[in-house]
Amino acid sequence: MLEIKSLHVKLEEEGKQILKGVDLKVGPGEVHAIMGPNGSGKSTTSYVLSGRDGYEVTEGEVLMDGQDILELEPEERAAAGLFLAFQYPVEIPGVSNMTFLRTAVNAQRKARGEEELSATDFLKLVREKAKSLKIDADMLKRPVNMGFSGGEKKRNEILQMAMLEPKLCILDETDSGLDVDAMKLVSEGVNALRDGKRSFVVITHYQRLLDHIKPDVVHIMSNGRIIKTGGPELALEVEHNGYADLLAEVENA
Ligand code: ADP
Ligand code: MG
Ligand code: MG
């Protein structure tokens, strides 16, 4: 599904090397968590996957279903089935959530060579998805993310994800700023989208999110690399001992 091979990335402007050889393989239906200290390159990894400007890939590949996505435009990546939920969802004044979703869904269908959804079909679909995620119909009419609480923004991202039916979802610190109840809602939303085929990469600081979204594999990232990979117990270890022991262990190896 996703294969990152020896990904090296530097900042275009400053020339600073941020990623120093990231390797990651995510199979269909798998949920992987990436944890690690602040500044280790977790967000940079997700930005590079999304195709954001300002980063230069100096070495390595990112394959989705065997296709190198680094050569694709951001919208082509989305059409290929990649979805990213960011740490800070953008607010879009003047554009209703409904219009935004319809535009996104139809752009994606077009890129896939499918016909646009009719207004009726779209409405039916969005209402059904919103309902299953316990999202108030009122939230669909409001401008995208404007005045939404942290929890509402996150739930809204899950709705976008549900509408676009991606193959691979990357969630970057979706838990930051969420209270326990909101975290549970987001987790339930994600879990509802797990279907044995769709894959997830969940970037998080907190083990507690992983109590709700149970990962198959946990990776620890530090200084631009994945330094350790394990099962869910690795997240618990980090929660109890912090990163210092792990980092020392790797340095001494
Ligand atoms: P994480 O998400 O793991 O906290 P980031 O990927 O956000 O880490 O950052 C990795 C490193 O790259 C940090 O040292 C950060 O300061 C630096 N960095 C990332 N983007 C920029 C940028 N646009 N300008 C300057 N430094 C950056
Ligand atoms: Mg950070
Ligand atoms: Mg980050």
UniProtKB/TrEMBL annotation:
InterPro entries: AAA+_ATPase, ABC_transporter-like_ATP-bd, ABC_transporter-like_CS, FeS-cluster_ATPase_SufC, P-loop_NTPase. SUPFAM superfamilies: P-loop containing nucleoside triphosphate hydrolases (SSF52540). SMART domains: AAA (SM00382). Coiled coil: none annotated. Residues 2-248 form the ABC transporter domain. GO terms for molecular function: ATP binding; ATP hydrolysis activity. Keywords: ATP-binding, Nucleotide-binding. PANTHER family: ABC TRANSPORTER I FAMILY MEMBER 6, CHLOROPLASTIC (PTHR43204). Belongs to the ABC transporter superfamily. Ycf16 family. This is Fe-S cluster assembly ATP-binding protein. It comes from Celeribacter neptunius. The lineage of its organism: Bacteria, Pseudomonadati, Pseudomonadota, Alphaproteobacteria, Rhodobacterales.
